[in-house]
Amino acid sequence: MRPSLPIPLRPTGRLALVALLACASLLPVASPVRAHPLAPALLQIRELPDDQAEISWKTSILQVRGSRVVPDLPSSCTPIGTSKVAEEGDSVTETFTATCADGLIGKTVGVSGLGDGRNDALLRIALLDGRVIQEVLRADSPTFSIPETGRPASVFTGYVRLGFDHILTGLDHLLFVFGLLLLATSTRLLIETITAFTVGHSITLSLAALGIANVPSGPVEVLIAISIFVLAVELARGPKTSPTLLRRFPWMMAFLFGLLHGLGFAGALREIGLPPDDIPLSLFSFNVGIEVGQLAFVFAVLLLGFVLRRVLERLPAWSERVPVYGIGCLSAYWVLERISEVLR
Q: How far is CA 109 from CA 49, 87, 159, in A?
């Protein structure tokens, strides 16, 4: 796909038809597809003396219809007393105590329903011997056996995978990055723009995850959708029109809007939580996962464009405008949808 998209301000009837077709093709999938993946569930188990354990189960109140994601505790664990339930934002946490005969070592714990819920779960276990075990449970590996001997902490790999999955399943973030690829007209400008976006969202991700910057998630999601729409409008103007500040300095726009997207990333990380003893490592690891996923997406798009360059060159000129109108239509839909959710 060519890096520049010369689209006039006033499209002809044929361009209007292209825009209409692009919107019509995207709207059927816009409703069921979430811009963000559901925040991973969090199962925390803290071993206590006398074969007891404190169990905390945190999950999002937004669930796939018909799914039921629940923790699977060892059969030897029996809940005692009453559980405490607390709601915070879009999540609900249930905490209770259980008696586990013969302790937790060698037992298997897990989470069921991950496949139906299209979600992952973070498992964090604190044992009496001082070990802190952390694993990511997925639909293809929903259980974990607590080892009898010590093993290296898996905080780094666990949070890298969570960050990687979050960016690659966040359609709104990927659309914004794709728009930056279309806006950059040279390799140097592309590197500067992607780097600025990375710096921007890394700053706010860290501030929000550490509790320094607390911003409600609803308005942030609206502003993220608006940022994608603004980018689509700028792409629709085309380089032949009077160059705007965004067109001349795309890295500036990428940095400012990156601050917004970082707050969106922090929303998912806040739902997961940071291990108290490994806050710097987990925060760094989550950010690394996001950057690896982002660079993988950029590389895949550039590689696909290179492989299909001859095919793309034969397409009619109006075909260049389809992705821009597609980004604009989907982002406009998200703006309206998210505003309605905030008002609701």
A: 19, 24, 20
